[in-house]
Write a sequence for this structure.
């Protein structure tokens, strides 16, 4: 590989960069992590690009690499608890409950988004990524299983656990009204 | 009398919400129409999930320059394990394997006289056991493009590196060790040069049969591993368990069951495994490599006696109630890496499957912690078996 290969690779993946960044944003929840995940995905894709040879759709291939990079990134963040200084979940929930008097305004509020974000931050990497792919991206359980390299049942269980965590944190907000 | 009402579970509601309930979709919808309690639960779920919105799209930062620099740095510090090197290293393992055994035996003899030579013995043992590790490294960058000669050379090199210890023992039983060994390597290399037929991967039924026979065989292998570990602690306990196991396995019905299970394992495993390697998929490659080893190991261990004569001077391991001591000659020394890697391959093969299965029931962090504990326990078992095979027993 040489610098010319770098230019060829970047020219080919350029039109998928926006898609990759937005997918990474949905999987990680914040801009800095999304940027890191895209860079890691690009590096991984470049390392194995000579074996891609156009057999599959480039976007599908990049999609799979990005999901695995996002999982690795989340795992490395969890091994370094100081990497994110997010507000404790209980504090975010209290703020959301006290600031928005009715359900419609609550859902539209920044406090609600922070509460959702903090709840997803507390999920395990697989819970977060499988839930985001199903809920935000509309990917089927079979597609997620294939992309993440885990079993069909494992994907279901991670999604169930993610939904339970979300309901535990969010349902109380409706009840308090 | 009223029928007891069976309500839908939360997980069923989640599947229904995402349209993933499959054939139950219509039944669930009908139930929700007729059951107010479930309808309320579903409404609450839908309200919460409906209010979970994705992060808003933001302007994508133009970090092309940063990525370009990152990739150029990668080009400059590119991994030394290029495809030709990976192929060469994988094939070097079987080519050099016959020389690892005399080196191990000679260093073990020297260690009996000079303690510092223990380091040489450990190094020689690592050399003899290096095959599966080299195979995993060689497979790390493999893809499923078996139409390429280089991919086939890489996978078959990894296969030969992995199975060198049991295959060498198998070939050595027939006499003419070195010519037969290098002949087998040459034949395998030729297989890489011809195109392979397209074989469909593991079907569900094949996997079921493989797992069922593995469960039967696993009990038998586990018994042997526990027995051999027991030899490290106490020779009389080993002999007691050994005679009990022999009584059980020499019943014609259990003998036939074991032979059938081994045959099914080898056939189903061979159908699934050779193409079941993929770049960066460490767990999948571990499963494939340990499966390759187990297939040849079990074949050598169980079936070889049917068509190959036992070599002169080889200890009658299967019938003795005394723990085997393998450091008596070069020929018996060859059995040490063979058994150690056999135990390791069994534990890894079962462990990787158990880990993937556990992910369906436990949180990822719990599975990771359990994996660490299991790895530590497995390493201790292998070390214990190794020490007992080298004649180390706490209570002789």
């Amino acid at each position: 590989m040489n610098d010319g290969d770098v230019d060829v690779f970047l020219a080919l993946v350029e039109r998928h960069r926006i898609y990759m960044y937005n997918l990474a944003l949905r999987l990680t929840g914040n801009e800095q992590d999304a940027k890191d995940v895209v860079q890691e995905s690009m590096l991984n894709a470049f390392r194995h690009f000579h074996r891609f040879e156009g057999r599959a759709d480039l976007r599908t291939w990049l999609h799979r690499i990005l999901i695995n990079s996002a999982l690795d990134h989340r795992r490395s963040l969890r091994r370094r608890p100081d990497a994110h200084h997010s507000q404790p979940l209980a504090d975010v929930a209290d703020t959301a409950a006290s600031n928005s008097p009715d359900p419609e305004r609550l859902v539209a509020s920044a406090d609600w988004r922070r509460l959702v974000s903090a709840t997803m931050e507390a999920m395990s990497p697989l819970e977060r990524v499988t839930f985001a792919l199903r809920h935000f991206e509309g990917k089927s359980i079979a597609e997620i299983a294939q992309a993440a390299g885990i079993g069909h049942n494992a994907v279901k269980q991670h999604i169930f656990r993610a939904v339970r965590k979300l309901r535990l944190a969010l349902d109380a907000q409706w009840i308090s009204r | 009398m009223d029928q007891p009402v069976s309500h839908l579970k939360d997980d069923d509601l989640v599947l229904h919400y995402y349209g993933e309930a499959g054939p139950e979709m219509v039944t669930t919808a009908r139930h929700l129409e007729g059951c107010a309690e479930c309808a309320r639960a579903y409404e609450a779920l839908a309200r919460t999930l409906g209010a979970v919105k994705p992060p808003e799209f933001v302007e994508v930062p133009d970090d092309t320059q940063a990525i370009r620099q990152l990739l150029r740095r990668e080009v400059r510090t590119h991994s030394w394990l290029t495809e030709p090197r990976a192929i060469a290293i994988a094939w070097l393992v079987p080519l050099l394997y016959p020389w690892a055994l005399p080196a191990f035996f000679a260093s073990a003899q020297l260690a009996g006289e000079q303690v510092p030579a223990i380091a040489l013995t450990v190094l020689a043992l690592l050399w003899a056991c290096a095959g599966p590790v080299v195979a995993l490294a060689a497979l790390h960058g493999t893809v499923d493009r078996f139409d390429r000669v280089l991919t086939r050379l890489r996978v078959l090199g990894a296969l030969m590196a992995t199975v060198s210890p049991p295959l060498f023992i198998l070939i050595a039983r027939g006499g003419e060790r070195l010519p037969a060994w290098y002949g087998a390597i040459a034949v395998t290399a030729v297989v890489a040069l011809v195109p392979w037929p397209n074989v469909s991967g593991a079907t569900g039924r094949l996997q079921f049969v493989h797992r069922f026979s593995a469960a039967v065989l696993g009990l038998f292998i586990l018994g042997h591993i526990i027995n051999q570990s027991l030899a490290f602690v106490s020779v009389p306990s080993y002999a007691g368990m050994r005679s009990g196991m022999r009584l059980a396995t020499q019943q014609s019905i259990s003998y036939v069951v074991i032979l059938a299970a081994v045959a099914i394992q080898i056939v189903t495993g061979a159908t699934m495994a050779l193409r079941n390697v993929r770049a960066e998929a460490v767990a999948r490659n571990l499963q494939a490599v340990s499966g390759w080893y187990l297939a040849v190991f079990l074949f050598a261990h169980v079936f070889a006696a049917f068509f190959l004569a036992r070599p002169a001077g080889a200890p009658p391991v299967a019938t003795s109630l005394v723990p085997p001591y393998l450091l008596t000659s070069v020929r018996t020394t060859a059995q040490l890496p063979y058994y150690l890697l056999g135990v390791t391959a069994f534990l890894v093969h079962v462990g990787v499957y158990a880990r993937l299965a556990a992910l369906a029931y436990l949180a990822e962090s719990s599975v990771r912690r359990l994996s660490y504990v299991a790895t530590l326990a497995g390493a201790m078992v292998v070390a214990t078996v190794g020490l007992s095979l080298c004649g180390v027993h706490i209570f002789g």
Observations:
- Residues 1-85 of chain A form a domain with the Rna Polymerase Sigma Factor; Chain: A fold (CATH 1.10.1740.10).
- DSSP finds ten helices and no strands in chain A.
- Chain A has two domains: 1-85, 87-177.
- The CA atoms of residues 7 and 13 of chain A lie 10 Å apart.
